[in-house]
Amino acid sequence: MSQNNKQVTYDDNNIFAKMLSGDIPYHKVYEDDKTLAFMDIMPQAEGHVLVIPKQKAVDLADLEPEYAAAVLMTCKKVMQAQRQVFEREGIIQMQLNGTQAGQTVFHYHVHLIPSSIHELGRHAVTQVENDQLADMAEKLATAIES
Ligand code: 5GP
């Protein structure tokens, strides 16, 4: 494999792995046996959620079919909750593969962003207050449960 398409190896100490092991706090939206969904702390729009598999995958290339299916089903739940809570139709589903694409955390994740392609905020720049994230996580979790 050439230098240009060299893949990062999975690091057990990446931020999302530490969330899965309970070593780093996060604002949970949804969890099942194969996936976890939580608020992005530097959102590109209000209500930005990340969905991750409970599998050690750097990016899409590593994702096993059962986890791919599980992530997509969790994305559907979260997106429907976002539509309800934020009273909007438009939700962007985004996923970056590799440094060149702008990926910054090397545990596979899907971004679900209540925004439009014309209004999307900057990627991973501005941190939001914990209480705001907690409030949104609670509303989304309640919408998923109902
Ligand atoms: P990527 O660039 O890998 O596609 O996206 C990584 C995402 O993780 C970014 O949107 C960034 O805001 C988010 N992020 C980075 N560090 C943390 C963190 O410690 N907690 C949470 N909840 N999100 C994070």
> How large a portion of the residues is in β-strands, by DSSP E?
5-15%
Oligomer: single chain
Rg (CA only): 15 Å
Mean pLDDT across the residues is 95
> N- to C-terminal separation?
48 Å
Tally of domains: 1
The secondary structure category is alpha+beta
User: What is the N-to-C order of secondary-structure elements (H for helix, E for strand)?
Assistant: HEEEHEEH
| CATH topological fold name | HIT family, subunit A
The count of DSSP E runs of length 2 or more, i.e. the number of strands, is: 5
Could you tell me which ligands this complex binds, including any ions or cofactors? guanosine-5'-monophosphate
- Tell me the number of helical segments per DSSP (H or I, 4 or more residues long): 3
> Could you say what the CATH architecture is?
2-Layer Sandwich
Helix content: 25-40%
Q: CATH superfamily, please?
A: HIT-like
Write out the strand line-up for the largest beta sheet, numbering strands in chain order: 1-2-3-5-4
Q: Which CATH class is shown?
A: Alpha Beta
Main sheet specs: 5 strands, antiparallel
Poorly predicted residue ranges:
none
Task: Record the SSE blueprint.
Elements: H1 15-20, E1 28-31, E2 35-39, E3 49-53, H2 65-85, E4 92-94, E5 110-113, H3 130-145
Antiparallel strand pairs: 1-2, 2-3, 3-5, 4-5
Task: Write up this protein.
By secondary structure, this protein is of the alpha+beta class. It has one domain: HIT-like (HIT family, subunit A), CATH 3.30.428. Helix content is 29%, strand content 14%. The protein is built from three helices and five strands, in the order αβββαββα. Strands 1-2-3-5-4 form a five-stranded antiparallel β-sheet. It is globular. It binds guanosine-5'-monophosphate (5GP). Guanosine-5'-monophosphate binds at residues 15, 26, 38-42, 50, 96, 102-105, 124. The site of guanosine-5'-monophosphate (5GP) has 14 residues, from strand 2.
